[in-house]
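Q: What does the assembled structure look like for these inputs?
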Amino acid sequence: MIAIIDYKMGNLFSIYNGIKKAGGEPVLVDGSAVARLREADGIVIPGVGAFGDGVKNFKVFEDVFFEMLRSGTPVLGICLGMQMFFESSEESGGHGLSVLKGSVVRLPSDVTTPHMGWNSLRILKETPILGGIKDGDYFYFVHSYHCIPEDARCVVAVTDYGGTVVAVIQEKNVYATQFHPEKSGRKGLRVLENFVRVCRS
Amino acid sequence: MLARRIIPCLDCDLAVPQGRVVKGIEFKRIRYAGVPWELAAKYDEQGADEIVFLDITASHERRETMVNVVRKTAENVFIPLTVGGGIRSVEDARKLFTAGADKVSINTAAIKNPKLVTEISKFFGSQACVVAIDAKRRYLGTKERERAEKEGKIIVETSQGPCWFECSVYGGRKFTGVDAIRWAMEVEALGAGEILLTSMDRDGTKDGYDIELTKAVSERVRIPVIASGGCGTLEHFEEVFKKTKASAALAASIFHYAEYSIGEIKEFLRSKGIPVRFE
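A:
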């Protein structure tokens, strides 16, 4: 079972359908059923919206989430979910979950914001969730802030938008994408299939 | 590199129980193009970058039909979905987002109640709020020009002479006196994440996008602009991407009549050096 954390940040229908299409068994877990996270083979933190609200709404999940994280359960943060893994954000100035060291900053002012549309990946390293994905493949991005990890070794793919933008991260069992795999057509479904496979192994 | 997007627009008639996509320019000769979610899946397969569903009946009482169309589509189509037509409140928008829409497009309701733009972008994010602008050229003689200037209209020097652009609502049936270019700048400030800009002069003509209009708007706002109205050939896509800053181009009949597949359009654009997405 793959738990999709429902912390009231955007519509979860697409990611639910995406995990199902990718062969996983998605279950939406909201704040009233946090203990269900313990049954999960993998955890997805999706999310569209503001950083401050996201972190606040996530509070109720934190204890069980960190327990699962430490036990080695694969987690996938998508878009806002990825940004929340870091220590802080310029957006609403709040503290993040500090799963990874680094911060989240606004995109450069000379490019159209939000960064919205299909952009191509530059793959820097092999990682299980990018299996079958080639350099130059397109994914759907929608965001106004981007992640600056302190340790660049966790960055496995980037894209270019007014400079280099971190697109995919992996550190041990922590996976994250700035793009939306659930909105990125067949390539996006491939990323979700890869994550489902990681959760089963 | 960020790709320029190709977006098929599916005009939905919700007067039949499941809803259907129609094609054709003359209302009397309206023709049935297919089942909405099946067509959406077909265009996704061909490489569409996004799908727009437009409720041409804009009927409040048939909201549930559109919600079902979106839900069925989102089960199989994993690219962004935009829904427009008849959305009047945050609650209307919420129902569509819950069913799997990524963006809603508002036109008449935004002009009547600009606060709705701010509310939708506050609740669901600016990326989820598209404002559709239907613009018509209003050519100006010398005297009229002086008056238009005094009124603060933005005047564009076109190859047919100076004009300003007027916003229309209710699917082009009513004109508002609102300057379309100024309105575009205003909705950006109100929180819109994207502008769907349709030329009423070109819509249905296959004479090509209104380049002068698209250029005027896309150079004045920092949010993405989707060009719409008039596309009939491959060269029209090339022209709008080369001559304007439009992020995306929308078309309908060129796809429904299978004149070109989306793959063919993208191959053509790639050969002209325009970045497009292939899977």
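The mean pLDDT of chain B is 93.
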